[in-house]
Amino acid sequence: MASWKKSVAAILLLGITCLNGCGTTGTPDYPIQPVPFTDVEIDDSFWSPRMEMNREVTIPYALQMCEETGRIDNFAIAGGLMEGSHQGYYFNDSDVAKVIEGAAYSLALYPDPELEAYIDDVIDKIAAAQEEDGYLYTARTAMTPDHMPPGGEERWSHIEHGHELYNLGHMIEGAIAYYLATDKRQLLDVVLRSLDLVEEVFGPDGMRNPPGHQEIEIALGKLYRLTGEPRYLNLAKFFLDMRGDAEGHQLYGEYSQDHIPVTDQTEAVGHSVRAAYLYSGMADIAALTGDDRYVQAIDAIWQDAVSTKLYVTGGIGATGGNEGFSTPYALPNETAYSETCASIANAMWNHRMFLLHGDARYMDVAERVIYNAFLSGISLEGDRFFYSNRLATVNGEERAPWFPCACCPSNVVRFLPSLPGYIYAHAGNDLYVNLFISGTGIVRTDRGIVRISQKSGYPWDGRVTLQVAPERRSGMFTLHIRIPGWARNEAVPSDLYRFTDQNTEEPILQINGVQVPLTVENGYVIIRRRWQEEDEVVLDLPMPIRTVAAHENVVADRGKLSLQRGPLVYCGLLCRMARQREW
User: Fold this and answer.
1) pLDDT tens track for 30-63
2) N or C: which end of the chain has fewer CB within 10 A?
3) Is 505 left (phi over 0), alpha (psi -120 to 50) or beta?
4) pLDDT for position 17
């Protein structure tokens, strides 16, 4: 395996492994570690075509659209490589960064000299756009009197909506991914110079404004893991702790989750993408610092979201006015926002919650999001997208080829190739199987490497065959296999949705052809044994068609049912029989 692949976990959305000593004994981190997607090979009838579609269609298409809409030219103009003025939104730099990140993930798995050369050229333009002191924000460098970013000519003058730090956060993530995929550090050097400037400007003795749109907190956690530099972790924590600090800045309000300190927050409020990025960043920094106050806060917020503000598809964000959360149980169908970016952020957040707590309910939510709210955001052809994902429509709605605000297509580009990193995880000698996707994974437990393979027709078929092969002839470790909530008569891990009938078919577990009792703890069946190379585990999950009803407080869903089979949700069914049932 190439040397860079030894640090591939940093390419994952979490960026678990670092290069220069960050992972030394005694350094806090998630108690459960994900198996990086570069250690997982997908061979799945459902997901493989979608992954291939992302590589062959969506990434080239997104790069083409970034060219046609001036997103790449903005860097060339800011760098003096061509004439012109800034085009589009002031946060368009972030779309280019996300596509670079997605392209890097693809290159990590499938070397492509042509794609790599193209990205190198884009990075040259980005480097040219960076100002002498490290400032990188084309909307200001290339602005004209009639086209200025929020705050006008003055840097950092409108942190709430200017998106300078948001753009940089995505650029950091793209730089890390590209460095680890190619060993090229030009973009990494660019973002490090930018961060030197940010550290000069922001801090206890400088500006104390947190970014209006969260993202850089996640990126700084990754960068800390990559470099081992505490200053990046400290900067991430600073931005978290300044949120809700009325002494440091004029508060932005609930829209940006800047109404009270993050450690005092208990409800999911405001812009849903910003919120879920914030909660993901809080989970990361809690894991890296051991600050449990963040965990207590996001535990309460998660309970609020899953109990009162989650669509049956796993989508979040009910209203378009704030692109975000509404009041409890306000979940309209025809006007649902359920932004694709919010679905991605929700999956990221729930995955991190699992890594903190080891409870399958978080992966139950993540699975619901991935198969439903997220996947509806992109066409099977890979070049049409939904921004919002409504659960019902009167006039019909079609996916669009692109958007002036293209955060969702560029986010799809980077999320899809990282999905294999959500399948497996490990802690010590515990190996977790979270998603049922055919293929092979390499898991590095304390007792050595374990090769685990899956074969299934999921999500259409509930039979999953697992083969476990320890590196040694035998190995003692514990296998945790998630038994989805839907297979345990639990629609979601709250009373927000419920199945209207009880499924009496129980999941069946066999080890080497012998049926064994299925005892579930925290949503997992736990098998501890001395594993041999040829051991085989077969799990049969019954998949009858179920009807799902919402809590009576969800006014929009009264008299309505959705259908669900396995993890797949079919929404918006108006059922006359529903009116005759006892609710």
Assistant:
1) 999 999 999 999 999 999 999 999 999 999 999 9
2) N
3) beta
4) 38
Model pLDDT, residue 31: 97
Give just the sign of the alpha carbon dihedral 243, 249, 254, 256: negative
Q: Whole-structure pTM over 0.90, yes or no?
A: yes
Short-list 537, 579, 538, CA closest to 557: 579
Q: Are 518 and 506 in contact (CB under 8 A)?
A: yes
Is residue 472's pLDDT more than 90? no
Contacts (Cβ under 8 Å, ≥6 apart) of 95: 62, 66, 71, 406, 407, 409, 410
| Residue 11 pLDDT exceeds 50 | no
Q: What is the largest CA-CA distance in the chain?
A: 75
Edge-to-edge order in the sheet of strand 40-42: 40-42, 439-445, 448-456, 463-470, 535-540, 508-511, 514-516
Minimum mean pLDDT range among 221-230, 313-322, 466-475 = 466-475
Mean pLDDT of 316-332: 95
Q: Report the topology of domain 430-543.
A: Maltose phosphorylase, domain 3 (2.60.420)
Q: Using CA atoms, how far apart are residues 322 and 275, in angstroms rounded to an integer?
A: 12
- Is 232 in contact with 175 (CB distance < 8 Å)? no
Exposed, middle or buried: residue 562 (CB in 10 Å: 0-12, 13-18, 19+)? buried
Q: Give the number of other CB atoms < 10 A from CB of residue 495.
A: 12
HEC letters along 215-245: CHHHHHHHHHHHHCCHHHHHHHHHHHHHCCC
CATH of 3-422 given 3.60.140.10, 1.50.10.10, 1.10.3720.10, 1.10.10.10: 1.50.10.10
Whole-angstrom distance, CA of residue 351 vs CA of residue 32: 11
CA distances in angstroms from 302 to 111, 279, 299, 443, 446, listed in the order given: 39, 9, 5, 29, 31
Radius of gyration of the chain (CA): 23
**What mean pLDDT comes out for the span 266-282?**
98
Look at the chain and count its residues: 583
* Residue-range domain boundaries for the chain: 3-422, 430-543, 546-580
Task: Output phi, psi for 427, to 5 deg.
Answer: -150, 110
- Predicted confidence (pLDDT) at residue 574 exceeds the cutoff of 50: no
pLDDT surpassing 80 at residue 100: yes
